Amino acid sequence: MAIDYAELKAGNREAAQALADARSARHLTSRRKREEASAERADEGARRRRKAMSDREAEAFLSRRLHIKMPEGDRPRTRSRTPRKLFTRMVAQMLKGTVGVTNARGPDGRHSIHFAFTARGFGSKNGRRWRAGEAERAALYSVREEALEGGELGWWSNVADDRNELVAHYRASEALEAKDRANANIYLVEVIALPAELTAEQRRQAVKRICRQLERLGLAYTVGIHLPDAAGDQRNFHLHLVYSMRPCQRVAPYEWQFAVTKRTEINTPAGIMQRRCAVVVAINETLREAGIDKRYTPLSNRDRGMAQPIRGKVGQQATWAARRLAAADDRHASLLILQDQLRQVSTGLVDAAKWLGSAGAIVRRRCLGMAIKLSDAEAIMPSPAALKAKMRDHLERQMSVADQATRAARAKLTPARSAVSQRLTSMRHDLGATAGASELANRREVLGTHLAGMRSHTVQTVADIATWVAAIPQHPIAIGHDTGRTVGGDRTSSTDGETFVTPTPPPSPTVGEMQAARHQAALRRQREIYDEALAMLRRKRGRVWLDADGRYDIDDADLPTRERGVWQRLKSTVKAQSDLADLHTAQQQSVRMRVVDMDAVEQATGVSALPSATVPLDPTIPEAEPASRPDDLFPVATATKQRGVFAQAESVDSEQARARPKGRDKDQTPAIPQKSEHER
């Protein structure tokens, strides 16, 4: 539109109309927009109301539950352990795994997470087709005993307390899903790698954090923390998580409440990524608490701009094929080693056979030579008559030697008896000449008693020797053919006109008699060791004291090991306490005699014998009377003990002990001068 300025200034109707039309159009546009916005707001409100209503309806549907209880007769009873056919592979047992060394990080400094997500249901065709009971087998595989870390601590479930109830739950879940859809999903499996840097307790804590999202959604899950496979990387601690998209709650043993709807948003790309992020957050939080500088990322290598690994993902089938080939190679190598060993064994057996053949030939030659020597010996063997004569001469020489020894013993004992008598007379004369006090008279009496005992002992010893010599048979012994006659229980034989009696050998002892004899010998040996220990203690002159129980004791540290052991076992017996009491009394009397002798010296010379006061007796140690000495410390028969010189000497010692005055010991008697070799 062309308008002149003058016309515009004067007022142009066309221009005014054009402006008015534009203004009206603008107002109409604004009104239309307001109306559309108002309509949109109304539609949004209606949409929101519809959405809220649908959410309430969905919530109502989700809140509806189906109560399922498995009766006693339908419960599984043979699932206390996982069947070995579900997991046993001989290849894994034959191969030995290694420890990897790779620890690669991405450009962002984080590690990739191994997160395998698998959904299985009636319509599953990927890998293998669905089979009835697959859910319970998957759960049992996850909680098998041989693979769990920490034993029974390595698995748990929020719908079962044991494996029987776990199998019952998945059977009920599979039966319920069969009523829903023909291609319904039954369970989901997540296999998640856990950090090897964590401890077993820390890995269990990380798994509990991973399961928190499932607990908030009310889903039923089963956890199994596995150790690394024997044939794989020994850092491969991993988690098997089996759960269902249908919410479920355990009410009682073998009773559950299932929801009528599912959480299908989990089995979507967004839901899987959400689960992957939740796993990474749980593991990173556990690593942070453990103070480990290692973090994971939920992104894949492609999203992070990293190149794909050269090897790539091999897959389960290829992995097991490679392991079978490696196992076959190891077995072939083992067979080669075994073949080499068998070859060496066969060579050794052949060599041994050759050596045995040569050794057999040598043995045969030696046996032949010995046979020849035996035949020569039989040819030169003397006659029986010569052997009898030779044995008769030998026995006669032995009897002659015994007679000479008897005569020599009697010839030596006669002057010994006279020497003892002379010595006794001389000592009595010396004591009578030097003693003037009552104490010397007491000593003379004790010495006389001791010498009388020695004389009695000597006489008895001589009589025993004479009896033993007289018991030796004086008749000659001949060797000849037995006539077979019996006289008074003995066998009679005659040779060349001579008749002699062969004493009948005593009967063989029984087992009980042999055991009793061994017991008596052991007791006699124990008594000998005890007497040696007591003699050592007397020579040591150790101090005797009373312990807290009122028993006598003595320091036995200087005794040898054997004597100390026997003394420790027998020191509480009546005989040992009696001997210790006598030794204690002798020590007390020795101290008193020492004091009396010193007083006598002081009175005779006028000079004090001690630089200080005399040593008083210990008031805490009572003066014990000589205890009654039992016949024997050990349970040895009296008849056995009375046979021989040892029993007679023991009786003489007992008589001397009873004849000794109270408070005196045989160690306190005056010292007897030793005789010379000629006098003995």
TrEMBL record:
Residues 19-56, 480-512, 612-680 are annotated as: Disordered. Keywords: Conjugation. Pfam families: MobA_MobL. Residues 33-56, 655-668 have a biased composition (Basic and acidic residues). Residues 177-320 form the MobA/MobL protein domain. Belongs to the MobA/MobL family. This is MobA/MobL protein domain-containing protein. It comes from Sphingomonas yabuuchiae.
